[in-house]
Specification:
single chain, 342 residues, alpha/beta, Aspartate Aminotransferase, domain 1, three-stranded antiparallel beta sheet, 10 strands
Length: 342
């Protein structure tokens, strides 16, 4: 079944399957002390452009996020994020439970934090009755499908650093941001002052795995212990890291992101042509739109997708690296038929 429900629904890129198969030879040292993991970490560290960068591989996005946040915080700290952030909405409270920190959620029109939105939450420093702000956490791209420019990231990093705080980037779709903005990973992270970020793989053609990349030595020193305690240390690590070598060296991370972004742009254009109202700018692989409850119910008989804000009749479609033009035309044809019959 083809769907626009999530980029998690898509399959695995053939070259990634081959990378896993190629690593499936003989025996190898477990828990990341293998040649694939050592090489994959070097590849990603070089991509980040930081001499201090360290990379640790984990099983999934939630695990990556809570490990990165634990590295930055103590339980009396607070983490500032958008109210739509994945760490606030879609991780079943894991960041709060595991870090012990308070989440300070900020409403935004497009999923993006700005210094002006964050500044009112930068208070209570040194006051023992208040949680102490320590992390500004952003998603790149956001849950609304929007992308932060390098200047926008840098402004948030400067604000964080001026208050002895860290900037964390949930980069499960970081490749989509790089593709949309036409910038390198270094230009959107290290060059902007990002302290720690994740690099997604599962939503972009990998079978399993995400990377936690720290560019601050004080954040890196305990990550390996945090990863183990958070149950994210995979014993047969070579099968995660072997994927990332091919993912980066064969440029799959960018080419897949470009494909899913381009599909979303085409989908959005064709939806607009048949009179569907979009609710967000299309800057990644997601399309947000308005559709009546009745039409939504009929459309779901053929295609699976999620509501975003049901109170506003707002829905979300997500394209994947393997979404085809035929997938899009078939969807538009069916939606157009429903609209014309109502």
């Amino acid at each position: 079944m083809r769907s626009f429900g999530s980029d998690n629904n898509s399959g695995v890129h053939p070259l990634i399957i081959q990378a896993i198969a190629d690593a499936n030879i003989n025996h190898s040292v477990a828990y990341g002390d293998d040649k694939w993991t050592i090489e994959a970490a070097k590849v990603i560290n070089n991509l980040s452009g930081s001499e201090n960068a360290t990379t640790h591989f984990v099983l999934n996005g939630t695990g990556a996020n809570v490990i990165a946040l634990q590295a930055c915080t103590q339980s009396f700290n607070s983490i500032i994020c958008a109210s739509t952030a994945h760490i606030a909405v879609d991780e079943c409270g894991a960041p709060v439970k595991i870090t012990g920190c308070a989440l300070k959620e900020i409403d935004t029109p497009d999923g993006k934090l700005t210094p002006e939105l964050v500044k009112p939450f930068l208070s209570g420093f040194g006051f023992e009755h208040h949680s102490q702000p320590k992390v500004i956490a952003i998603s790149q791209t956001t849950e609304m499908g929007t992308a932060y420019s390098p200047d926008e990231v840098r402004a948030l990093a400067d604000l964080a650093h001026s208050h002895d705080m860290y900037l964390f980037v949930d980069g499960t779709r970081l490749a989509n941001a790089c593709a949309y903005l036409d910038v390198s990973l270094k230009e959107i992270t290290t060059d902007c002052g990002v302290d720690i970020f994740t690099l997604g793989g599962t939503k972009n053609g990998l079978m399993i795995g995400e990377a936690v990349v720290s560019v601050r030595s004080e954040l890196s020193k305990n990550i390996k212990y945090i990863r183990k305690q958070t149950t994210q240390l995979f014993s047969k690590m070579r099968f995660i890291s072997a994927q990332f070598i091919t993912y980066i060296e064969q440029d799959i991370w960018l080419s897949n992101a470009r494909k899913s972004n381009q599909s979303a742009q085409l989908l959005a254009e064709m939806m607009t042509e048949i009179g569907v109202k979009l609710t967000q700018k299309v800057q990644s692989n997601a399309v947000f739109f308005e559709l009546s409850d009745d039409l939504t119910e009929q459309l779901r008989q053929q295609y699976y997708f999620y509501d975003w804000d049901a109170s506003k009749q707002e829905r979300r479609l997500v394209c994947s690296w393997d979404t085809t033009e035929e997938d899009i035309k078939s969807f538009i044809g069916y939606l157009s038929l429903l609209i014309s019959n109502n």
